[in-house]
């Protein structure tokens, strides 16, 4: 495109022309919804396209929501079945995958209805079908008459990367989009790839009593986490019976009638009833007609954007999984809103786009925000550590959820909270208390908040007071 035809936020792009819409959003996942709602509520005329039969994105239909709903069904059902009272009563049933999945469709239905109401209330039409750019300011839905817009947000998400030579049509071989459709509960499963999705499924399937082999291509699990949390999750997964192999890489995957054999370059072979490929994702950019607008995706199919989520073609923004890490529904939504604010010419109100928390729904759950000890040590920041073990909290003792820890990292001179790391029951909720204290700039971010505040008793939130006192007591 002609570089001069758009200014930094694309606001003058072809401004003399009339368009069907001010903004056209491609994709109705959290990224697309965030952008569409932000702009529609501020008076822009907005339309969206969705190629799947229902709105909500991969997030609602084959990613976050179904995986978390299944996890809840598995953990709650298995906890009940392990209850000694039930055993005494002779209740010893084995739920099928189909039974455990049943509630998921209800939750998805509720999500779709709720999200549809957002589009309806804000007068945002949804065009059903595959959107493709036919020119810089026009998309066609399934080849129909082009729809024009002044600005675009691409929020088309991602899909599992599928290496050549692996037969994903085989009934025993799955990727993270197809695994939720697995019919029979296998006795054993091999998961290749130990990123967030691989580790979450390893934990979930192990809870279901499946023998799990987790194959990691790196030397540690979830390397971006704090080392102590990595050690904790590695210990607990092994303790539960997950076999973890690090530093491995696949040579070939051979499906057989009675199982799947993974051949590793190290010479090892792993045979299991089912195989889950969870190694890498690609941005959904093929078949988007990007060649008509001059955007060239990278080798992973992702669109490169600047800090405002503008692509190389400034009136076309991209948010969510299609731009790569952190590839979280939470981040996609915030990015969509931030892109929307930029389109509206507003500042993004400090959406803390670079301080995205991590929530990993393993058993035990993991969550963190801010710096790790490794990062602070490398940056020579004089920090101190405060810890609270869940086993010493009354609430954890009452609920029997004593596995876990909260760890606060804070600057030993300014007392600023620099990192919050948690594992254990409800870690993904607990972390947000620390995040809100960490968020303000300057003196308002201070660890003494936790020692000067009365917490309900008994609560898990109390862990903050315990950890803060523990850390402050180390100062001299
Ligand atoms: C198993 C699993 C578990 C996960 N768990 C979590 C979690 O616990 N927490 C978390 O924060 N994140 C989680 N994620 C990640 C999260 O689901 C994604 O980060 C999120 O869905 C990305 O949102 P998005 O809007 O970018 O894309 P999506 O939600 O994937 O939506 C993209 C939409 O665009 C549509 N589309 C694509 N191309 C076109 C086109 N050309 N025309 C029209 N429509 C199109 C697609 O049909 C889709 O509906 C998980 C992912 C997986 C796979």
UniProtKB/TrEMBL annotation:
What's an example of a GO molecular-function annotation for this chain? NAD(P)+ transhydrogenase (Si-specific) activity
Family designation = Belongs to the class-I pyridine nucleotide-disulfide oxidoreductase family.
GO CC annotations, alphabetized: cytosol
Quote the SUPFAM superfamilies the UniProt record gives: FAD/NAD(P)-binding domain, FAD/NAD-linked reductases, dimerisation (C-terminal) domain
In which residues is NAD(+) bound?
Answer: 193-200, 280
Q: Does the keyword NAD apply?
A: yes
Residues at which FAD binds: 68, 156-158, 321
Per the UniProt entry, the Enzyme Commission number(s) are 1.6.1.1
Q: Does the keyword Nucleotide-binding apply?
A: yes
Q: Which residues form the signal peptide?
A: none
EC class name: oxidoreductase
Name by which UniProt lists this protein: Soluble pyridine nucleotide transhydrogenase
What's the encoding gene here? Answer: sthA
Q: Identify which cofactors the protein needs according to its UniProt entry.
A: FAD
Q: What is the documented function of this protein?
A: Conversion of NADPH, generated by peripheral catabolic pathways, to NADH, which can enter the respiratory chain for energy generation.
Q: Which organism is it from?
A: Rubripirellula obstinata
């Amino acid at each position: 495109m002609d570089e001069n035809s758009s200014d930094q936020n694309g606001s003058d792009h072809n401004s003399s022309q009339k368009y069907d819409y001010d903004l056209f959003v491609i994709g109705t996942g959290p990224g697309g919804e965030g952008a569409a709602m932000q702009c529609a509520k501020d008076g822009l005329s907005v339309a969206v396209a969705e190629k799947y039969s229902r709105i909500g994105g991969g997030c609602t239909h084959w990613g976050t929501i179904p995986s978390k709903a299944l996890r809840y069904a598995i953990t709650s059902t298995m906890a009940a079945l392990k209850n000694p009272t039930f055993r005494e009563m002779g209740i010893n049933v084995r739920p099928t995958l189909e039974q455990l999945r049943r509630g998921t469709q209800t939750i998805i239905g509720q999500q779709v209805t709720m999200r549809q109401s957002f589009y309806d209330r804000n007068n945002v039409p949804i065009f059903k079908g595959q959107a493709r750019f036919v020119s810089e300011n026009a998309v066609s839905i399934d080849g129909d008459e082009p729809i024009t817009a002044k600005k675009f947000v691409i929020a088309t998400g991602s899909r599992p990367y599928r290496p050549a030579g692996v037969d994903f049509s085989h009934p025993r071989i799955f990727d993270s989009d197809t695994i939720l459709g697995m019919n029979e509960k296998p006795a054993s499963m091999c998961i290749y790839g130990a990123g967030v999705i691989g580790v979450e499924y390893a934990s979930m399937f192990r809870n279901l009593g499946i023998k799990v082999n987790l194959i990691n291509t790196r030397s540690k699990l979830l390397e971006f986490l704090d080392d102590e949390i990595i050690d904790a999750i590695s210990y607990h997964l092994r303790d539960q019976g997950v076999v973890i192999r690090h530093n491995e890489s696949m040579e070939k995957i051979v499906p057989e009638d009675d199982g799947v054999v993974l051949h590793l370059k190290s010479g090892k072979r792993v045979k299991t009833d089912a195989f889950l490929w969870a190694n890498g994702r690609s941005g959904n950019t093929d078949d988007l007609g990007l060649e008509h607008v001059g955007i060239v995706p990278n080798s992973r199919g992702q669109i490169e954007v600047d800090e405002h989520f503008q692509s190389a073609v400034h009136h076309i923004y991209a948010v969510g999984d299609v731009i790569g890490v952190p590839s979280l529904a939470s981040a996609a939504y915030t990015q969509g809103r931030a892109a929307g604010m930029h389109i509206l010419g507003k500042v993004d109100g400090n959406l803390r786009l670079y301080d995205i928390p991590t929530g990993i729904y393993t058993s035990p759950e993991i969550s963190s925000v801010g710096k790790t000890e490794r990062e602070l040590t490398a940056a020579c920041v004089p920090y101190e550590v405060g810890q609270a073990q869940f086993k010493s909290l009354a609430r954890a003792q009452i609920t029997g959820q004593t596995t876990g820890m909260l760890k606060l990292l804070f600057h030993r001179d300014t007392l600023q909270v620099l990192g919050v790391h948690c594992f254990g029951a409800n870690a993904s909720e607990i972390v947000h208390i620390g995040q809100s204290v960490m968020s303000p700039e300057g003196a308002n971010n201070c660890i003494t908040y936790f020692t000067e505040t009365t917490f309900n008793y008994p609560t898990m939130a109390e862990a903050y007071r315990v950890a803060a006192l523990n850390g402050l007591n180390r100062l001299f």
